[in-house]
């Protein structure tokens, strides 16, 4: 073999066979400068004088990166970039990305990450460990088991006594695991036979459940026709009586009801399904009850608010997203099941090049009970954050998020008609309209089609102007025939003050009057 092997940029490997350009001192110097850049960005995250976003079009972004010396496109024959250009790429990316750690980023069900979580994430990237076997990931394997055990304790004594679980890539996948295990229980032959020739399985979710249930039904082979949307009450919670009606209808059609996907903290209204009553229906018809607590499950941290999830000890599986209310960096999602060994028996393929039963500590391997092979050490950042904040710190952050939401609701109610609640606040979700003077007072039930159309244009126009100026990011949407309204959510708002919210609502009112005089 030749000592000097040609490589892509025309340079040669050194005598040790390594490419020295990115080895040793150069790598350390680059990473130190990159870390300084990232830390400076972190240091400014509470600065309300900074915009939440410097909104730019795709064409404007292309120009900005080209001017920084790092065009977005990857050309054929791309030359290696210098360290200054790479640092410029990092700077341009931060400059033009949404500042999700900004106190006024209130757009999604996630927000600013905790510093310990960021450090934990950095460490797992540097370690670059795949959490599939104990021999490859000894510390991360034990950490994942420890965090799952602590979360099981939060869910209740029966969970602590017997549970199984995994960190998974997102709440949608956690919901799919619930449906996947339920199918394995009711139709174990499906693993070998496939869906064809098996029972017509029927699943049920609320009409306001997360869209991931629909995707799960498709991936798991049920088909969207066999996912039934159950009506909700005015708060957005599933009606147990309507679930019973839907189950009986499915039985009459020859279907096999097997799965109910409940919601703890719905995406729009923040509604909590009544788990105790749903569990009664599920037990009566021998159905698996899964709870999507991706958003609202964090209330288990709070003595004041955990009652929202009364009945969690009765569910068969649970999804939690610490990267939402708990302030962990994306992604950090958990699936828990109450039947030990079911993940392993459902998903195991016994790949003998990875999961040899006669190797050291083989009983600690986690990888064969997943549907993945490559899997990040996402548990570590939650473990480190929990160590940094303790139970009390996590609980205080949880309670503060809901207190901020209650404050906004009170401001809406006291606004004299400028703002109006769409529904009473639930959890940390505040859904409201800003009303032009011509529509005050507003009664949605009595409004004409023209009034509904006019109001539906208000939130998009207000949001567009706020984005253009870099002001707060707040989501909007229609729901159940109601015109577009703002949905303000508090996911990780430890730096947000009550007076910041007061000032925000005053700015929204002034901007609304300017746009709709």
TrEMBL record:
GO terms for cellular component: cytoplasm. Belongs to the group II decarboxylase family. The modification N6-(pyridoxal phosphate)lysine is found at residue 324. Keywords: Decarboxylase, Lyase, Pyridoxal phosphate. PANTHER family: CYSTEINE SULFINIC ACID DECARBOXYLASE, GLUTAMATE DECARBOXYLASE-RELATED. GO terms for biological process: carboxylic acid metabolic process. This is Glutamate decarboxylase.
């Amino acid at each position: 073999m030749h000592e000097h092997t040609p490589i892509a940029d025309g340079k040669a490997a050194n005598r040790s066979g390594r490419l020295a350009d990115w080895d040793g001192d150069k790598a350390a110097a680059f990473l130190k400068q990159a870390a300084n850049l990232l830390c400076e960005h972190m240091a400014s995250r509470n600065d309300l004088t900074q915009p939440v976003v410097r909104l730019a079009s795709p064409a404007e972004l292309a120009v900005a990166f080209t001017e920084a010396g790092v065009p977005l496109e990857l050309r054929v024959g791309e030359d290696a970039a210098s360290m200054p250009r790479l640092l410029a790429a990092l700077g341009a990316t931060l400059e033009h990305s949404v500042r999700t750690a900004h106190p006024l980023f209130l757009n999604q069900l996630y927000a600013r990450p905790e510093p310990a979580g960021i450090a934990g994430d950095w460490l797992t990237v540097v370690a670059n460990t795949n959490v599939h076997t104990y021999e490859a990931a000894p510390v991360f394997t034990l950490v994942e088991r420890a965090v799952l055990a602590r979360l099981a304790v939060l869910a209740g004594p029966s969970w602590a006594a017997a549970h199984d679980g995994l960190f998974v890539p997102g709440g949608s996948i956690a919901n799919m695991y619930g449906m996947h295990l339920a199918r394995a229980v009711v139709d174990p032959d499906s693993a070998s036979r496939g869906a064809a020739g098996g029972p017509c399985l029927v699943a049920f979710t609320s009409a306001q459940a997360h869209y991931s249930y629909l995707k799960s039904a498709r991936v798991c082979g049920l088909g969207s026709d066999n996912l039934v949307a159950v009506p909700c009450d005015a708060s957005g919670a599933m009606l147990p009586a309507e679930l019973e009606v839907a189950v009986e209808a499915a039985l009459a059609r020859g279907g096999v009801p097997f799965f109910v996907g409940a919601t703890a903290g719905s995406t729009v209204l923040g509604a909590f399904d009544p788990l105790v009553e749903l569990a009664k229906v599920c037990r009566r018809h021998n159905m698996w009850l899964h709870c999507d607590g991706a958003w609202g499950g964090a209330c288990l941290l709070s003595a004041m608010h955990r009652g929202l999830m009364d009945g969690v000890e009765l569910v068969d599986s649970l999804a939690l997203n610490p990267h939402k209310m708990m302030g962990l960096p994306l992604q950090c999602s958990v699936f828990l099941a109450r039947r030990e060994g079911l993940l392993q028996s459902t998903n195991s393929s016994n790949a003998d090049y990875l999961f040899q039963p006669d190797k050291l500590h083989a009983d600690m391997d986690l990888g064969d009970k997943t549907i993945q092979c490559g899997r990040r050490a996402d548990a570590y950042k939650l473990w480190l954050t929990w160590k940094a904040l303790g139970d009390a710190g996590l609980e205080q952050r949880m309670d503060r998020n809901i207190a901020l939401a209650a404050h906004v609701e009170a401001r809406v109610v006291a606004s004299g008609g400028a703002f109006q609640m769409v529904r009473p606040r639930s959890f940390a979700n505040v859904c409201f309209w800003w009303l032009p003077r011509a529509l005050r007072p507003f009664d949605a039930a009595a409004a004409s089609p023209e009034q509904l159309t006019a109001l539906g244009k208000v939130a998009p126009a207000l949001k567009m102007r706020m984005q253009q100026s870099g002001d707060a990011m707040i989501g909007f949407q229609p729901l159940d025939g109601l015109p577009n309204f703002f949905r303000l959510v508090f996911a990780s708002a430890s730096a947000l003050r009550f007076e910041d919210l007061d000032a925000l609502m005053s700015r929204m009112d002034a901007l609304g009057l300017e746009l709709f005089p």
